[in-house]
Amino acid sequence: MIRCLIVDDEHLAREAIKAYIEKIPELALVGECENALQAMAFLRKENIDLIFLDIEMPEIDGISFLKYVKNNPRVVFTTAYRNYAIEAFDLDVIDYLLKPISFERFVLAINKFYERKNSNVSHNETNKTNRNFINIKANRKTYKIDIVNIDYIESLKDYVKIICADESIITHDSLSNFETILKEYGFIRTHNSFLVAIDKIKSFNSESVFLKNKELPISRTYKKFVLSHLER
């Protein structure tokens, strides 16, 4: 059972999410909070698996709240505003739902939660050699991939393709999960479909990044974020 908390200052918004939660047997609504301060107090008493969190709230907004919370549960942002999307995904949220939220879109967010929970990728740091690896489950095997050998990762709907210097591996997973693991190792999201190793980028312009033998697009959504990092 997935223990859920709704944090939203709008009563109607809370009721809508509550109704969706009640339709899915695997979800259990444990609490509702009208603001971030109530949520902080609630989390000190209860263990939560998933928070449906509004962004624009009085006193403390959802993004600030998430930065304050230690050992925070998984989060799905629910908001009427598009302009927080990049900052939100920088905080490793499961999904970003725009109000009014359809039930179909809500179910997709829950599926993403399960994808993250049941991921086929794990991180393994080998202290003796000071090398970092990820273990990829594919083709009934586990592949041990040195992170420094990864050029980029491409999303293929329900799968991802990991492109290395000497091999490519396809596994059932999400690009957002790889982004969570690899962003601290110098990987950057340039597009909904691409996660790229910054040190493999040879050149770039406002539309694309260029690797040794590959050109990858920069989407409008990620352009400002990508260029601000590459122009440092």
TrEMBL record:
The modification 4-aspartylphosphate is found at residue 54. Keywords: Phosphoprotein. InterPro entries: 2C-system_Tx_regulators, CheY-like_superfamily, LytTR_DNA-bd_dom, Sig_transdc_resp-reg_receiver. One of its GO terms (molecular function) is DNA binding. SMART domains: LytTR (SM00850), REC (SM00448). It holds the Pfam family Response_reg. Residues 134-232 form the HTH LytTR-type domain. Transmembrane segments: none annotated. The keyword Transport does not apply. Residues 3-114 form the Response regulatory domain. This is Response regulator. The lineage of its organism: Bacteria, Pseudomonadati, Bacteroidota, Bacteroidia, Marinilabiliales.
